Amino acid sequence: MRGHMRIKILYEDANILAIDKPSGILVNKIEKEKEKSVFDYFLKKYPKLELAHRLDKETSGVMILAKNQKAHEFLKKQFKDRQIKKIYNAIVSGYVKNDHGIINKSIGRSPRDFRRRLAGRGARGEMREAITEYKVLKRFKASCVQNFSRFTLKGSDTDKNFEHTVPFTFLEVRPKTGRTHQIRVHMKYLNHPVVCDSLYNPNGLCPKNISRLALHAKSIEFRNLSGKIIKVESPLPKEFNSLIRANGRIDKK
Questions:
Q1: Which stretches of the chain score pLDDT less than 50?
Q2: Is 40 a catalytic residue?
Q3: Which alpha helices (H) appear in 127-253, and where do they start and end?
Q4: pTM (two decimals)
Q5: From 56, 99, 113, 157, the catalytic residue
Q6: How far apart are CA 76 and CA 54, in angstroms?
Q7: CA distance 198 to 187
Q8: 225 alpha-carbon distance from chain centroid
Q9: Which domains does the chain have, with CATH numbers?
Q10: Exposed e or buried b for every residue in 87-110, given b needs 16+ CB within 10 A?
């Protein structure tokens, strides 16, 4: 798995494992992909391992796995009953107007791209309830580099890279349901797509030094098989932290 990469264990008991998933790692094996997944990484040590939930490949952060079937069923019921509390951090394009809000918009499939989901007008297929709460932590501007080489004439001496500052918002996001791509779809619906999202924000500008989907699973709270409430947290990725700290001033809306 990416050479010497190690996946950090954040919590472990006899039945449940909580890990700090790196960005760029698949959760489960896809036939056409040759690289190892999170599941592959732990399967040898825990042969009865089951996935309790999923994170997108480019999303980092806390993820829980069940070591056996009993734990799997126990956790799945908590997810189904919406008893598990999840908190994410996201950097999105533009200044989000309201300091906090709730997006209550069902999600279906995109008619144009089978990989994409869609909230609101134009969505197809079964519409599934989806609720996302968000809170603005910071509004800031950051430098971006845009390459205009495809617009310049061949042989032109014009500098093809232009650096300029662009507004972004740093959010705390709490999904109340667990639909595929939910946060990414809902932020797209608000016209503030997640930064560096190749699927939902392919033409959006990325801040300098951010080259991955700017979505991180910060924490998860669940009940273990002994009945104890466990909260597991993953630190903010270094590149996110550096970006937020480098832009200390909070800009007005």
A1: 1-3, 147-159
A2: no
A3: 182-189, 238-246
A4: 0.88
A5: 56
A6: 12
A7: 14
A8: 27
A9: 8-246 (3.30.2350.10)
A10: bbbbbbbebbeeeeeebebbbbbb
